[in-house]
Amino acid sequence: MLKQQLNFKLSQKLSPQQIQLMKLIQLPTQAFEQRIKQELEENPALEDGKEDLEKDFDDEFSNDDEYDNDGTESIDADIDVDDYLSDDEIPNYRLQANNYSADDEEKHVPYAAGTSFSQYLQSQLSTFRLTDIEKEIANFLVGSVDESGYIRRTLQDIVDDLAFTQNVYTDEATVERVLKLVQELDPAGVGARSLQESLLIQLRRKEPNKDVSLAIDLLEKSFDHFSKKHYNKLLSKHDITEDELRHAIDVIGHLNPKPGGHFSGNARLAEHVIPDFTIKIVDGELELTLNGRNAPEMHISNDYNNMLKGYKEAKEKSKAQKEAVMFIKQKLDSAKWFIEAIKQRQQTLMITMSAIMHYQKEYFLTGDERNLRPMILKDIADEIGMDVSTVSRVANSKYVDTPYGTKLIKVFFSESMKNDQGEDVSTREIKKILEMSIEDENKRKPLTDEKLAKLLKEKGYPIARRTVAKYREQLDIPVARMRKEI
C-alpha cells in the first residue's frame, strides 16, 4: 500500500562560492599562485596588474536593466564575500592587513634537471658485457630497485614476472647471477634484498683491515645479536675485547642503510617551502607580515567594460548581442567574486596568524619550546570569532618564517596536561623535557620508560609509563635497549 506524507527538514548546505573560498584559504602560497594563474586563463574578464577595479563600471550600469528584460539581476550586483566565509560578525578594524608589498615577495628558486635513480643505474649497465637475456634481466632488476636502493621481492617472484611481462624464461640461478652484477653498481649496497646484505656489500668494497674483517664476521655470523645490541653475547661468541667491538661497530655505523636514499640525482625534487608569513622581533615586540605573493594585484578587464558600453549605446539590440552581454555579465561577476575572495583570504590568514602569534608570544620571543602554551583549534577560533574548520585550514598547510627557523603552523597546537601544581602545560613542553632527559642519559645504561616516567615525575610532570612510551615513539626515539652504546 502506497502512502504519501510531507516532511519538513532543515539542512545547511554550502554554496559553490563558499566551497571555493574555503579551498582558497587552505592553499599555501605556491598552490595559491597556480590557482590564480588558472583563473586568469579561464576568465578573460580578469587581469592582473595595478589597474583600477571596475573602472566606470558601477556608474554606467548601476540603473540599467535594458539589456535583460527577463528579470535577470543587474550586472554589477554586489557580492558580500564575508557572508560566504561564516556567519560570524567581524569588526572592520580586525580586517585591516595592509602590511604587504611587492618588496615582500619571495623569489622563485630554480631547480636543476637531474637524472632519476633508475636511469643512473641503467647507465652503468652499459659497462658490463651481457647477453641479450642478461640485459633484459638486469634492466628488470634495476627497475625493481626501490627508492631506498633495495629489491624487496623474492627471486621466484622476479622469475615469474619476467616470464609473464617480458617473455623472458629463466631460472632463479641465472637471476641471482645477474643480481650479483647489479649489486656491483654504485652507490655501494644497491640491489640488496635485506639490510644485512646491503651492509655486507658495502663492507666488502672497503680496504681490508682488522676492523673491517671483524665487522664482516659480526654481520655474517651474529647479525641478530648485533641488531638487538646484545654486546655481551657478541664479546663472548667472537672472543674479542670491548675496544675491538667498538671499532667494528664504528665501521658499521659509517655505512649507509639506505644506499638509494641520498642519491643526488634523484628525480624527486627537494621540497622547497615558501613561508606564508614572517614573524620578526623588532625592539622586543613581535611583528607579523604576510608574504607579498599572497596579495596579488587583480582588476577587471577594461575591454569587457567597453563591450558593455558599446551595447548600451547601440540603438538596436539583437538577440545575439543580448546573449553576448549575458556571457560578459557572468564573467564579470566571476571576476568580481574572485577579487573579493582573494581579499577575504588575505584578511582571514592575517587575523588567524596574528591570534596564534599573540597566544604563543612567549615562544616566539624566546624560541624555547618549553614556553609553548597548550593551544587547540577552538582556542583560536573563539578568539577570532571564526569556525574551527577555518582555523584548521590555515594551520594545516601554511608555514611561518620565525627567528628560529621555518615552522609548519600546526606544530604550535598541542593538548594540555596538568603538572604537579595543577597548572596546564603543553604536551610539547613535556616532550622537549623527555628528549633532553634522553640526551643526557648514560648511553651504557639507557633509561627505560619506567625510569623516564619516574624522572619526569621528579621534575613535576606526573605521567604514566605508557604515556612516556607514546611520546618517545612520537619523537622517533628507540627503546632503551636500542639506545645502548658500548
The tally of helices reads 21
The oligomeric status of these chains comes to single chain
Distance between the termini: 83 Å
Overall morphology: extended
Sequence of strands across the biggest β-sheet: 3-2-5-6
Number of domains: 4
Count of extended strands: 8
H/E series: HHEHHHHHHHHHHHEEEHHHHHEEEEHHH
Return the structural class.
Answer: alpha+beta
Strand proportion, as a percent range, falls in 5-15%
State the major sheet: 4 strands, mixed
Calculate Rg over CA atoms.
32 Å
Which percent bin holds the helix content?
40-55%
Mean pLDDT: 77
Low-confidence stretches: 52-113, 264-270
List the helices and strands and how they pair.
Blueprint: H1 16-26, H2 29-42, E1 46-48, H3 57-61, H4 81-85, H5 117-125, H6 132-143, H7 155-166, H8 172-182, H9 195-204, H10 210-221, H11 223-227, H12 231-238, H13 242-253, E2 277-282, E3 285-290, E4 298-300, H14 302-313, H15 319-359, H16 361-366, H17 377-384, H18 388-397, E5 399-402, E6 405-408, E7 416-418, E8 424-426, H19 427-439, H20 449-458, H21 465-474
Parallel strand pairs: 2-5
Antiparallel strand pairs: 1-4, 2-3, 5-6, 7-8
Helix pairs in contact: 1-15, 1-18, 5-6, 6-8, 9-10, 10-13, 14-15, 15-17, 17-18, 20-21
Q: What distinguishing features does this structure have?
A:
486 residues, alpha+beta, 4 domains, four-stranded mixed β-sheet, two-stranded antiparallel ribbon, 21 helices, 8 strands, 7% strand
Verbal overview:
With 486 residues, the protein is α+β, with helices and mostly antiparallel strands. The protein has 4 domains: 14-106 and 274-413, no CATH class; 115-187; 193-255; 415-486, Homeodomain-like (Arc Repressor Mutant, subunit A). 49% of the residues lie in helices and 7% in strands. The chain contains 21 helices and 8 strands. It has helices at residues 16-26, 29-42, 57-61, 81-85, 117-125, 132-143, 155-166, 172-182, 195-204, 210-221, 223-227, 231-238, 242-253, 302-313, 319-359, 361-366, 377-384, 388-397, 427-439, 449-458, 465-474, and strands at 46-48, 277-282, 285-290, 298-300, 399-402, 405-408, 416-418, 424-426. The protein has a 4-stranded mixed beta sheet with strand order 3-2-5-6. Strands 1-4 form a two-stranded antiparallel sheet. β5 and β6 form a beta hairpin. α1 (16-26) runs parallel beside α18, α15 packs across α17 (377-384) and α17 (377-384) crosses α18. Mean pLDDT is 77; it is low at 52-113 and 264-270.
